[in-house]
Amino acid sequence: MQAFFNNDIPNTEFVLKIILKMPTLKVKTVTIQQRLLNTQGHEGVVDVLATDEEGKLYNIEIQNDMSEAPPKRGRYYNSLLDTNFLEEGKPYSSLPETYIIFITRGDYFKRGEAKYEIEMFVNNHFDINPN
Q: What gap in Å lies between CA 44 and CA 35, rounded to an integer?
């Protein structure tokens, strides 16, 4: 898979368009095996990291071992992207939109689906103005 994606914008764009159902997506850059540092502990090495023309980030992870694809790994990789791509002094609002994609050999959740979407969201069942 590394050879397939290695700096290959057309192949990466093709795969992302299909998986994300984004027919107009235009990939700008592709790198493989990019190290994401964490000064506090466990670092990560992303299999494929792509950016599009709008600055969105796409991390594609290829997993043969199903135990290596838990949702919390996706959450962690998302946090690594956030910490590595927010420039010092920039506001949090400048964080890029990110997509973490795991391509696995089998059905991780064992529910018979070819694709699962996990979204992080803010639950709005609280008062944001406590006064």
A: 6
Pick 71 or 123 by higher pLDDT.
71
Beta carbons within 10 angstroms of residue 78's beta carbon: 16
- Angle at alpha carbon of residue 59, lines to 55 and 61, rounded to 5°: 170
Spatial separation of the C-alpha atoms in residues 21 and 115, rounded to whole Å = 12
Q: How many residues does the chain have?
A: 131
Cα separation, 76 vs 10, whole angstroms: 28
Which pTM was predicted? 0.82
Are the CB atoms for 61 and 34 separated by under 8 Å? no
The answer to whether 30 and 50 are in contact (CB under 8 A) is yes
